[in-house]
Amino acid sequence: xxxxxxxxxxxxxxxxxxxxxxxxxxxxxxxxxxxxxxxxxxxxxxxxxxxxxxxxxxxxxxxxxxxxxxxxxxxxxxxxxxxxxxxxxxxxxxxxxxxxxxxxxxxxxxxxxxxxxxxxxxxxxxxxxxxxxxxxxxxxxxxxxxxxxxxxxxxxxxxxxxxxxxxxxxxxxxxxxxxxxxxxxxxxxxxxxxxxxxxxxxxxxxxxxxxxxxxxxxxxxxxxxxxxxxxxxxxxxxxxxxxxxxxxxxxxxxxxxxxxxxxxxxxxxxxxxxxxxxxxxxxxxxxxxxxxxxxxxxxxxxxxxxxxxxxxxxxxxxxxxxxxxxxxxxxxxxxxxxxxxxxxxxxxxxxxxxxxxxxxxxxxxxxxxxxxxxxxxxxxxxxxxxxxxxxxxxxxxxxxxxxxxxxxxxx
Length: 411
Fold this sequence. Notes:
The protein is mostly helical. The chain has one domain: Up-down Bundle (Growth Hormone, Chain: A), CATH 1.20.1250. Helix content is 79%, strand content 0%. The chain has helices at residues 2-25, 32-39, 43-71, 73-93, 97-116, 118-128, 131-147, 149-163, 165-182, 208-216, 219-248, 253-277, 283-303, 308-321, 325-337, 342-371, 375-392.
């Protein structure tokens, strides 16, 4: 019973932190127009700040994940939550563009979400959950990552409309501080699951270089990482540039906020559903299907006249597949290498996703500034989506025993 209560506490706290942490970053696009106009920055400059956020997140994730493996989630969540709130505070108060955007949104919130997002939280849930429920619970927590946007996107847009974007950014910083305080309740480092081998003593833990060599020698891991690049490329372009794109199409700013809310609502169900499906069906084939459906949705959206109705339908399809990739990728990482170094190994593959996010967010701004439209950027989203589908479908998902590289064997 005590173990069950511990699992529930970890899952509840992780879901709440994920909802706020991921929900806040998915609202960055709401600030593009008003903050860009007041600070005098171009679409490309704002997109670059969001791109830096993704790059810093990806580069920091393996190292932050290693800290979570060693010390548990609580200290990582507290430290990174504080950095996240500080970054949003700089956005709210700075009159110097590079301080509020590149340092605040780019570097500090990037470091913040590395410790309050997927890697550390999913590692805590994976260790606390029994094997037969692991996929469903990871899907549940992943879904919470966009469920938060259901509240935060309309709240942020309402504050921007009524009080200005700086007030909205201040409110987001305060919300982030509340999330950080809640992190205390997640507890210390969960025990390893019964099916996992005993963890090594800290002084015997292998270095990042050893783990990287083991992971990067697996062809399936490389294919999954490359496909994950395309995932980040598509999603970060949409979250960063969809509100501006809709404005160019003559739609009200509220449509962009509503679309982000629909994405969050559908993702909450989609992530949980894919977590369950991944326990019964091949995760690699499900991932390929997600990439194919997303790409088809983009083609269909561009082929029809852009309207409020078509945008909300598009948002629903994208939302249903938005973070459904996370429980599937998590399942494959555990299958390939076990749970002993899950946080770090998930961080390595997630770096591919964030490199894609960096490219997608920045590319969208550059394309718009050079051409005056987003057409070429949308075509790039279709191309990378097709490439991801082709890479993911035949992925080699056979386990690779890590003990040959000096790590514990896969569970």
